[in-house]
Hints:
By secondary structure, this protein is an all-alpha fold. Helices cover 58% and strands 0% of the residues.
Amino acid sequence: xxxxxxxxxxxxxxxxxxxxxxxxxxxxxxxxxxxxxxxxxxxxxxxxxxxxxxxxxxxxxxxxxxxxxxxxxxxxxxxxxxxx
Length: 84
């Protein structure tokens, strides 16, 4: 494994130290490695959710002009409670 140096602000270094202490990590590098892995997993999870949302849009249809007060009627059907 090869290494490099990164520059971060003193405030970010202190934040990283606090996180390292909370996670019982021995070094800032180990903490950063853990946080990067955690972020990658979270991004992968969010990407799956986004794909689900996008795929569900294929069932969407244009219902024309709408009134935000009638959102329940638009989503679930039934009578409108608004007086417009």
